[in-house]
């Protein structure tokens, strides 16, 4: 409690200082000119943007207030490769909507948050090589008449997705007649599916399998109808950092760390063949 | 019934309380800061300083007429473009402070206007300077007059911190969403619990304001 | 900014339409419901007064977002299938009605009680006196605060974004994510909000000055 009160007092003081600071000086060094890798080496910390609402990839554990999942473990492994055994990985919770602005603003050094590599995004940010191959699929209530994406392409059908997710753009192409409802994150989208706000929830199969294990009354149907290679997003112009991330990825794939993490999270997921995804 | 017992396990309650603490933290800092800034802005709008009052008035009007969510987006996503990179907690506090200062400026300005102009003249006649009269006589009365409005604005502030769940501020509503997102049987217990928590804080504050109002009247 | 405006014009106009529609529906119903509970609060019947008080205190002291999410998530599970726009608008109506009730009650109480007594003495029933004598005068007093409530309604309707209600803020989030031009998207939408709220707010200030004379 005392700790929390001191934090509060500190915040107040900080607030005063920053207000003065803000009015006193305007521009500072542009973020794009800083070398992220150098900064991270100096602070011995890499700041990652991760999901906190996505089972298997990044999910908040209520017991200890830590985000856990495949993305988080991969981020930790890469951090150790780049900074050494004592390197610290710091995690900032993002949603599909907030991750790109936060990266571009420099709040986070990299995004590892179920993010598909797409040409549109590559205009804004750089990607590492793909670290996971997902494909878009559908989650429906067991016994639902919806069996594949074709069943959704009817006027009046509502499909749930998440703002900023590539899957939302995809479904608009695959089922143009359906109406897409965008929620702020996957927890909200799943809750909306349960409330009957849409006939199906669409996103990448890995995320949907996670939801299906959490919610036994729901199943993934229709197979995958797109390819969604996940990449780690890094700001443009950060070539040294991107190179280190790619190298670290190659190393953990070569020494079996990657497969161990994959097995840890996907080894027991019904419908997901982790051996096929192993590298 | 079993759902409720499971939902209110110590682990979940502790997680909710952690969220509640962030809500309180954001609220307390924003309330204090916005009261100070709002008072200054309100007075600036009242004393007609050439250009300055007009500019302050215009900015206050713009901020007052925007949805708070937009201002949260601006401080979290927009400020870094100006070279300042706030963390999520700080960005929220900043947004709440900016918005509430503008709302309070308007309330305090109308409070000052409502103070009888004879008061100012009387104080000046007794040898006070304009600033002294404003600070010692007019401003305190304006605050007294507007206490119920100011407090209800603070109550709105506390409730509005819930909007920051959209940028994943780990506040009360966000933590409740995380809990029921992982187990949908907890949806109703979670909604009831956070509604109760918000209610207790806000209602207590409104009772306090009524007592204060009676005491001062 | 111009590119956002031209490229996403139809989404923006649709958003504007839903924002205005939701605000108008909520204004009409929250004024009706709010007035009803305000009357409850001034009735001689103690039970009615308590009901009025409880309603107002509950919905004034819970965040709008929590109320809107409640209608979006829980009502469809157990009561009726309602979509995001409906759920958000119902939440908005209920939340605002508690504020309007408080405003109207203050308006009713500021009308001289002699008016009511006089009307009753002239043979009017309580309801006749209330609806023909007291309420019209009360409403004259509360028009400026009601106008401010409408401005709040327009701003608060942005919670529809959380429940996929297709309003301006929902479109803003969607456009920001599609265009990846976050700040400009939100600036454009901010402009759309100001086009509605700023003139209203200046008009209300003008009206207040007129009435104060």
TrEMBL record, chain A:
Supply the SMART domains for this chain.
PBPb, PBPe
Question: What sequence ranges are listed for the domain Ionotropic glutamate receptor C-terminal?
Answer: 54-268
Q: Which Gene3D superfamilies match?
A: Periplasmic binding protein-like II
Q: Which InterPro entries match?
A: Bact_solute-bind_prot3, Iontro_rcpt_C, Solute-binding_3/MltF_N
| PROSITE patterns (alphabetical) | PROKAR_LIPOPROTEIN (PS51257)
Which parts of the sequence belong to the Solute-binding protein family 3/N-terminal domain? 45-269
Q: Does the keyword Transport apply?
A: yes
The reply to whether Lipid biosynthesis figures as a keyword in the UniProt entry is no
Sorted UniProt keywords: Signal, Transport
A Pfam family annotated for this UniProt entry? SBP_bac_3
The entry assigns this protein to a family as follows:
Belongs to the bacterial solute-binding protein 3 family.
Which PANTHER family does this entry report, sorted A to Z? ABC TRANSPORTER GLUTAMINE-BINDING PROTEIN GLNH, AMINO ACID ABC TRANSPORTER PERMEASE
- Protein name, UniProt field: Transporter substrate-binding domain-containing protein
TrEMBL record, chain B:
TM segment ranges:
20-44, 51-76, 88-108, 186-208
Leader peptide range in chain numbering:
none
Q: Does the keyword Transmembrane apply?
A: yes
Q: Where does it live in the cell?
A: Cell membrane
Q: Which UniProt keywords apply?
A: Cell membrane, Membrane, Transmembrane, Transmembrane helix, Transport
Q: Pinpoint the ABC transmembrane type-1 domain residues.
A: 20-209
Q: What is this protein called?
A: Amino acid ABC transporter permease
The species is Lactiplantibacillus plajomi
UniProtKB/TrEMBL annotation, chain C:
- Using the record's annotation, list all stretches that form the ABC transmembrane type-1 domain: 16-204
Membrane topology of this protein: Multi-pass membrane protein
Give the UniProt subcellular location, in the record's own words. Cell membrane
Give the primary localization class: membrane
Q: Which Gene3D superfamilies match?
A: MetI-like
- The transmembrane segments are 20-40, 61-79, 183-203
Please name the InterPro entries in this protein's record.
Answer: AA_ABC_transptr_permease_3TM, ArtM/GltK/GlnP/TcyL/YhdX-like, MetI-like, MetI-like_sf
Task: Supply the alphabetized keyword list.
Answer: Cell membrane, Membrane, Transmembrane, Transmembrane helix, Transport
Listed PANTHER family = GLUTAMINE ABC TRANSPORTER PERMEASE PROTEIN GLNM-RELATED, MEMBRANE COMPONENT OF AMINO ACID ABC TRANSPORTER
Q: Which family is this protein grouped under? A: Belongs to the binding-protein-dependent transport system permease family.
Q: What is this protein called?
A: Amino acid ABC transporter permease
Q: Which organism is it from?
A: Lactiplantibacillus plajomi
